[in-house]
Each structure stands twice: as structure tokens, then as C-alpha cells.
């Protein structure tokens, strides 16, 4: 009875997860194009505007969307008890997407700290790096392949139902 209200949040969590993933992936595809506008030949005022736009996009839209996506997705895994091989493959691509996110953030910082001395990579490389995990995540979620040819140990495919091995602090 007490879990009914928690399970009723699943549609809301799915909405947050899909909306967050859309913003996250879209932002990671747009940011390299924005970074390409960081040209040392640009006038200082224009450079400041471009720098501000890329910084705000990364810190106020893309990163919060990534955090929201991961939190909502984690809740969905445990509420829906989805412990299947396609999920583990999806999580591997999510980890790759996190790495691309960090790399784009690193490039953004380098461009800001060393204007004129640090050139961002050609947009094709970071866009491709973000597009690959986005497409694989989308494909895995929509197709939900069985991936029977991959054998996972039982502890990865079945919920254990036990308590985490943590000490509970006494008050």
C-alpha cells in the first residue's frame, strides 16, 4: 500500500528521463557547433557574447539535464526492476555519453581560459562522439533486444532484495 504512490510516479519519472535525455543529447550536439564560433579573429565584444552563450548552455541547460536524466533513470531502474542485458549495454553507452559531456566541458574551459591560443576541435569530431552513444541509447531503449548471446551472472539479472552492506549510524 505504501509503495503504490511511489509506483504511480513512474510515468512522471519517464517524462523527466526522456525530456532530460532530449535536452542532454541535443545540447551535446549543439555545443560543438557553438564552440566552432570561438574564433580568435572575432572582435572582443562578439567573443564575450559567444563565450557567455556557450558557458550558459553548458552549465544551465546541458549539465542539469544530464543530472536529471541520470537521477530519473536510476529511479526507473529500481522501480521497474529492469535488470536485463539491454539495460547494461545502455548504461555502457550512457557512461560514454558522460565522457563526451566531460570532454566538451573541458574544451569549453580551455577555450575560455586561453582565448586565441586554444582552438576547439572541428565540430564533426565532438558531434560524432555525442551522436554515436545517443543513437545507441535510443536504439537499445526502443528495440529492447534480448541480447541472449551475452551471458550475465545471476546477480546482475535478478534483484537481490537484500540490504546494502552499510552501517546505519546510531542517533
Whole-Å distance between the termini? 29 Å
In round numbers, the mean pLDDT is 88
Approximate shape: elongated
SSE topology string: HHHHHH
Give the biggest beta sheet. Answer: none
> What portion of the residues fall into strands of 2 or more residues?
under 5%
> Low-confidence spans: pLDDT under 50, at least 5 residues?
none
Rounded Rg: 20 Å
Helix count, DSSP H or I runs of 4 or more residues: 6
What level of helicity do the residues show? over 70%
Structural class determined from secondary elements: mainly alpha
Q: Total strand count, please?
A: 0
Q: Could you please describe the fold and organization of this structure?
A:
With 171 residues, the protein is an all-alpha fold. Helix content is 70%, strand content 0%. It has 6 helices and no strands. The protein has helices at 4-7, 10-35, 44-80, 85-113, 124-143, 154-157. The two termini are 29 Å apart.
What is the topological layout?
Blueprint: H1 4-7, H2 10-35, H3 44-80, H4 85-113, H5 124-143, H6 154-157
List its traits.
mainly alpha, 0% strand, 171 residues, 6 helices
Summarize the structure.
The chain is built from six helices and no strands. The chain has 171 residues and is mainly alpha-helical.
Amino acid at each position: 500500500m505504501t509503495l503504490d504512490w511511489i509506483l504511480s510516479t513512474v510515468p512522471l519519472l519517464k517524462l523527466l528521463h526522456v525530456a532530460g535525455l532530449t535536452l542532454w543529447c541535443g545540447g551535446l550536439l549543439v555545443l560543438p557547433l557553438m564552440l566552432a564560433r570561438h574564433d580568435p579573429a572575432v572582435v572582443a565584444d562578439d567573443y564575450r557574447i559567444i563565450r557567455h552563450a556557450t558557458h550558459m548552455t553548458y552549465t544551465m541547460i546541458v549539465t542539469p539535464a544530464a543530472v536529471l536524466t541520470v537521477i530519473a533513470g536510476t529511479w526507473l531502474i529500481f522501480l521497474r526492476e529492469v535488470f536485463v542485458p539491454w539495460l547494461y549495454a545502455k548504461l555502457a553507452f550512457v557512461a560514454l555519453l558522460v565522457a563526451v559531456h566531460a570532454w566538451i566541458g573541458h574544451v569549453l574551459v580551455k577555450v575560455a581560459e586561453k582565448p586565441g591560443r586554444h582552438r576547439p576541435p572541428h565540430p564533426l569530431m565532438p558531434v560524432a562522439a555525442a551522436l554515436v552513444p545517443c543513437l545507441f541509447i535510443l536504439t537499445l531503449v526502443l528495440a529492447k533486444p534480448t541480447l541472449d548471446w551475452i551471458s550475465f551472472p545471476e546477480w546482475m539479472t535478478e534483484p537481490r532484495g537484500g540490504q546494502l552492506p552499510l552501517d546505519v549510524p546510531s542517533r
